[in-house]
Amino acid sequence: MKRRSLIALAALLLPVLAAAQTKPAPRRSDTPALSAARTIVAGAPLSVFLSNAPQGARLAIARTDDPASKAIVVVEPKTAVPALPTPGAVGAYELRLTMEKDGAPVILLRQPLATTEPRATLAAPERVGRGQGLPVRGIGPNGEQDRVMLVRPEAPADADGPRFFPAENVEATLEAPDQPGVYELRYILHAPLAEHRILARRVVKVE
């Protein structure tokens, strides 16, 4: 009787033991991982959620067919949620986590990234007195190097003038020039692959 009980117990335990043997091993908690938006406005900063990055790792944005040694943007992450400048040109790219091995970068992780057409808007009074404050709002990709600037209409895209950086604050007061005339308020995209690209213009008369 006792032997029959043991045989019955073994029959019950066999499926349990088999299931335990076939259960997949849990993912190691120290495995690197990254997550980010797969589509973003060209030139906008990309926030990346990064975990367990090995020491010396880099985040990079490259074209999909670029080798590991080539990239458009390379950043050394300082936090668990670093931000990268994205290319200012519309296209298909790849977000990568890389690290040096035997003196050359090796791709640890990769994720597709597509950039869409950037746009910007400007708001400001049409007229302002000479040397007076001009309240301005500028909204666009808001990349770190983007700027809103007041210049002459014929000035080149890289001209200097009263300006502010929308990444810091989308609203600011610019000092109007002492010289009266027609001026142009501009939102200028300044990003990898697209430096000094004018996204929006608005005429302002200085009187």
Indicate the low-confidence ranges by residue numbers.
Answer: 6-14, 16-20
Write down the secondary-structure element order.
Answer: HEEEEEEEEEEEEEEEE
Structural Rg: 28 Å
**What sort of overall outline do the alpha carbons produce when their principal axes are compared?**
elongated
Main beta sheet strand tally, sense and closure: 5 strands, mixed
N-to-C span: 110 Å
Average of per-residue pLDDT values: 89
Helix proportion: 10-25%
Count the DSSP helices.
1
Secondary-structure class: mainly beta
Write up this protein:
There is one protein chain. By secondary structure, the protein is mainly beta. The protein is built from 1 helix and 16 strands. The protein has one helix at about 1-20; strands at about 35, 40, 45-50, 60-65, 75, 85, 90-100, 105-115, 120-125, 125-130, 135-140, 145-150, 165, 170-175, 180-190, 195-205. The strands form 4 sheets. The protein has a 5-stranded mixed beta sheet, with no helix packed on it. A 5-stranded mixed beta sheet has the order 10-16-15-12-13, with no helix packed on it. Strands 1-3-6 form a 3-stranded antiparallel beta sheet, with no helix packed on it. A hairpin with a 2-residue loop joins strand 7 (about 90-100) and strand 8. The longest helix is centred in the first third of the chain and has 21 residues, at about 1-20. The protein starts with a helix and ends with a strand. About 25% of the residues are buried. Residues about 5-15 and about 15-20 have low confidence and may be disordered.
